[in-house]
Every structure is written in C-alpha cells, then in structure tokens.
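This section describes the prediction task in plain terms. A model, or a person checking by hand, is given the sequence of a single protein chain and must write out its three-dimensional structure as a string of tokens. No templates, partner chains or ligands are provided. The sample shown here is typical of the held-out split.
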Amino acid sequence: MKRLFLILTVLTICAGISLNSQTAIPPSEGDGTESNPYQIASLANLYWISEDIGNWDKSFIQTVDINASETIDWFDGNGWKPIGVPFYDEIPYSGPPFTGSYDGQDFVIDSLFISRSGDGIGLFGATEGSVIQNVGLTNVFFDGYLWNTGGIVGVHASNSLMNNCYVTGQITGKSIIGGIIGHNSDSTVNSCYSEVEVIGESDLGGLIGHNELASVVQSYSESLVRGSMGIGGLVGRSTFSSIIDSYSTSNVEVQGYGSSIGGLIGYNDASIVNNSYYDYEAVLLNGEHVITIGALDNETFTAWLGNNLSLDIADYFSFDGEDYLIGSEQDFWKLLLFGQFPANSFKLTSNLDLSGRDNIFIPYFTGIFLGNGHTIINFNADFSETNYSSIGLFGSTYEAEVRNLNLTGFSVKGKGDIGGLTGSSYDSSFHNIQLSGIVEGSFNAGGLAGSGKLIHIKDCESNVSISGIGKAGGLAGVTYFSEIENSYSIGSVSGSNWIGGLAGMIDGQTIVHNCISKGVVQGSSAVGGLIGESGLSSVVRSFSEGNVEGDDTVGGLIGYLSESYVSDSYSTGDVDATSYAGGLVGFVFYSDIANCYSLGNVTGDSASGGLIGYNYDFLDSVISNSYWNTETSAQSYSEGGEGRTTEEMTYPYAANTYAGWNFSEIWQADPGYDCNSGYPFLTEMPLSTEEEEEGNIVDVTKTAVYLYPNPFNPETTIFLALAEKDINRPVTVTVYNIKGQRVAVILEDEIVRENELKLAWRGSNDQGKELSSGIYFVRIETNSNTISRKITLLK
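The expected answer:
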C-alpha cells in the first residue's frame, strides 16, 4: 500500500511537471504597446505569446536568459509551437503571421526544441511587418520535416526586419532551410549570424534558405550546410535580392547528386552581390576548394576581414582618370574582389593569355568592362563532372556592361547556365564581342550567354561550337525580356530540346532583329536554324542559312513559334525531321508571320510543309505575304504561305510574289544574281534613335558612324562623327569578311584633328583586288570605343 502511494505520488509530480512546462503565464509587467512592451521573463511567458493568437500584434522585450530545454517533452515530443503559425499541420499554414515586435535585449533562449511537420517552423513561424531584434538562440534542435524552417523565423512573409540576431545548434528539414530564416521574402536581415548545422535537400543556406526580393546586410555564417541542390554557405537560393557587406566561412557538403552549390550562394537568380565573400582556400565545397560567387584567396579574404570588410581599390589597380587598368593576368584576377562594385569601370590595356589558370574565373561581375579591342585567349573552365552553375569568363553578371572584347580559344564545360562570356546575366549589355571557342553544358548553354534576363546583345559575332541537352544557342541559350540585334553566329549547335543557331529559346517579349545564323543545328524537339523556340517574342529582319535536323517541331528559321511575331526574315538551309517540319517554322501556335520566305529542302514523315510544318489554329495565326520555293523544298503543301517556283522567286520576281514588301528600306533586289542568287536580301538596319535623330547626333559624348550607300556598288562613304574625347587621338578603320578575316585597312592609327571624317571604300582589299559580293563588317577603333557596322557589297 505504501509502495502504491509512492508510485502515485511520483506520477502526479511528473504529470504536474509536464503540465507546468506547457503552461502559459502572462507577463507581470507591460501592456504590449510600443511604449510599454510586455516583459518576457520566463519560458511560460514566452509560451503565452505562442498560445494566444491575440498577442501576435503586440510588442515584447525579453528581460532574462531563458532555458527552454524542457520543450523536448512538449506536445508528445513535438516541442515548441512556433509563434505566428497556429495551424502548423496544414500546408500552407492557415493562421495569421506575427505582426508585432520582439526585442531579446541580447538575452538568450537556450535549447529550444521543435520536431514538427508543416510550413513555417522556427521560434516564429511567420512574420509580416514585424521587427525582431537582439535575439540569441543557442543549442537549438529544429526538425521541420518539410518546408520553410529557420532558427528565428520559418517564413518572413513581407516587410519585416531582423536585426542583431544569432542562432547556434542544428536545423533540419526538407527544403528552404536556413540557420536564421527559412524563406526570407521582401524583408531585411541585418547584423545577424549563424553557427548551425543545416541539413536537408534543397534551398539550404547557413543563414537563409531562400532569399526572395529581400536583403542581407552585414551578416555572416559559420555553419555546416549539407544537402543536394541550391545549397550555399550563406544563402541557398537568392532571387531578385541583395547581399551586402556579408560573408561565410561555412563548409558545404553534397548528399547524393547535387547541383547549384556555392560558398556564398548556392543558386543566384538576378540578385545583387556587393562586398560579400568567402575564403575559397579555406572553405570546402563538397570536399574541394572551388571558386564560386564571392570567392577570394586566403590572403585577400583575411586582409578584407581584418580591415572592417573593406579594401582600397587604389592599392590594387592603376587608374587613368576614368577606368581601372588591367594589363596582366594578375590584374584580371583582382576582379574577384573588385568586380562586385557597380561604380567601377575596368579597361584592358593588353591581350591576356589565361591558359595557366584552369577553372579560375570571375564568378560575379557588375559595373563596366572595356575590352578596348584586345583579346583574351585560352580561357578554360571544365566543371562537367561537378555541380556548380553559372560558368563563363564572368560566371554571373548583374547590371554589367561588357564592350569591345575578343574572347578566343576558350573551352567552357559544365551543367547549367554555361556561356563563353557569361553563364547567367541580368540587366546587362554586351556590345561588339567576338567569340571563338567551345561550350558544352546540360541546360542553358550559349556562345556568349547561357541564360539572360533583360539583357542586350549588340554587334556580337560568335564562332562557337555549342552542345547541350536543352536550351542551347550559338549566342544565347535562353533569354527573357531581352534584345539581340546586329549579331550573328556561324558555329554548329547540337543538343536535345530548344536548340537554335542563334538562341535556343527566347521568351517574355525578347526581340531579335538584324541577326544571322549560318551553322548546322541538330537536336530533337523545338529546333531552329535561328531560334529553337520563340514565345511571346518577335524576330524581324533576320535569316539563317545552316541545315537543321531534329525529330519534331523543326524549322529552317524557328522550330516552335508561340504567340510571337516574325517579319521580313528568311531561311535557306535544309530541314530534316520526322514530324512538324517547316522550311521557315516547324510549329506555329497563335502567331503572326509576314513578309518571309524559305528555300531549303524539307524532309518529314508527317505534318511537314514548305514554309510551315503545322499551324495549330489557322484562325488565330496570320501568315501573310510569305512564300516557299516548291522546287527547292520538294514540298507542294504548307499550312500557311504561298508556294512559288524558283523563277517566280528570283529576279525580276513574279508580280504575285513579294507583294507589298518594302524594297526601299528593308529589302534589296539582287538583279545580278551575285549577292543572294537572285533572291531578295536584307539591307542594314537603320541607326537606332540613340545614335541618330533626323540626321543629327543626339549623344555628342559618343562617336557615331554612318555608312552610305549601304548596300553599295561601286563605292561607299564611311562617315565618322567623333566624340570630343576621340579628337586628336589615333583612329583605325578596318574591314573584315563574315569569317572574321581582315581584308582591308582603310585607316591605321591616324591622328584625326577634326570632329568629322569621311572615308571612301571601293570594295577592294589592301592589294587593290576587288572583293566578291557579300556581307562585310567595318570596324572603327577610337580612343574611347570600338564600333562595328555591317555593310553589303553588290556587284
């Protein structure tokens, strides 16, 4: 009897302990207003916030250190209930977020435990418009099972501030896991740090799992991050965000097959990185010392860290009053440190040979890089057996400008976002870039750029061999909301889906005009001589000449055309496919085509046609004044367009052919059959409004170039209107053929003392021999710029 009494007593005490550990006790001081916040002086006070949804818009301050170790026994082992997510078992969470403020006043909460499934796991589940500051969580163990798990907050919903907070311990989950925040959206993290083990599958960061439309400032991570994809020492995935004055010393380990791994950021999508780094000689990424975004060598990182996160660029570069000068390979690698500052402009002063530093590149660049007409040769980056993304001479560019650069003899290999000049790019411009080399990747592979948003490619020339699984193109793999003009590609392109001679895919109102592709294009689906797939975009005044092979949706100009516009363009290459094969477009979906023609032989088992292979809906697509050659195509049928014979399509042209075409400004006849075998060809695009307005130069700070007439025979005039900074400086004018070979020197290092210069060229080489009809490029090199203009010689 006495033994039974003791057992009941012990059980009662234990039950009481368990009950008390989950008892919510209101604070004894404060009323929850900003001027008189509730004072949290115990774990029971803290739990009172979590338990009462009516507290989630109030203000709180912590007045003591809190031992939360007993939470390991709460709710049958589920532990702490996050503040701000009342129905944590529902996905997505259905309760309101925490909208108040919490000031830890530099006190700690120790040994907090959570083991729950749901969305939004942390001390706070979700916040909106809140301020959380001076909070320290030590020795935490959080297992979120699923998504959005963070030490302080699982989900920063919007417009919140986290300031001077830190977390130590271990945090695990499935995806979007961070030491401080799981998903940081539209909010700011300032002066925070983490020393945790972050373990999961995807979007994992030592500080933040996914940083979206958000900012990280003056923060760091000393964590261990272990996962599969989108894993970074500081941030796992950063989307349209900013990381400023921050760093990481975190090692990153890959479990199973991994991708998008970085010492600072795992995957960067159009985000600002400014003065933020990691020591790539100390940090291990999957057991290796690897350069990714933010990489610095040990000496430079230590100096930067010891100098209050700052180094003086004047100690590293010479300056000519406008640009920092790069005259050696050693100078170029200093861009690892100073390429993150948008105010900086760099200029090459000599050719560079990078053959001695394989797999070393500039992973992030913003600002201006002036090639100054010089050449960078033998750049080699082979990441084909690893899991890093955004590989190129400049791995990722943000609001950058690169001009007047020759990049030759390069070899770039990797998984995703692979390009000769840049792997991925946002809001950047590339002008007068000549490229020659090899690019091999899985997805998003391009001779100049693997992928790009809001980018502008102008006067660029690519002779790059491209191979990739998906979205591969001679100049760009995939672009969104971008513009490609006055550019061409002559290299071969091969892959599987979305493969194009110039671009694999263009989308989101991308404009392609006055462009050419000549290389052989091979793929499976959505394969085009110029563009693999065009969605919500336009292609004007462009043509392709290379042969195109694929399985389905294959076109001489465009493979798959969706809700797009094509005008004043043509294709001459042969098309060989199983189905949906067209001389101009393989598959048309709700699009318009005007003033186009195709000549190539079309071979296909089903849904094939001389101009269009398959038109999804005749009523919602308009195909006007467009033609295909019934003889050269061996096709008597097309789902759109009009069939014509060779005689009808060549000069002097049948009356019912090229009806309404503009032969004064857009098209040029070929009466001599010596420029385009008698078929019409495109004249040069008129100067853009930034260069010409009613014959007057608008921007006097830039040298303008005019060629007239163009096309020409027998003579053309090259008119230069020199900017002030180019007067009394050397000017060189040379002519190149479409293969990139120099054929004539019109002016060489001539000092020009007037603001205007007129030069005549009669279409001959330096030996006085007349050149054959065709397209040539006039290159003008001045003190401030190098300009290329396309010109057509007729005989």
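For orientation: The domain at 704-793 is CATH 2.60.40.3080 (Immunoglobulin-like).
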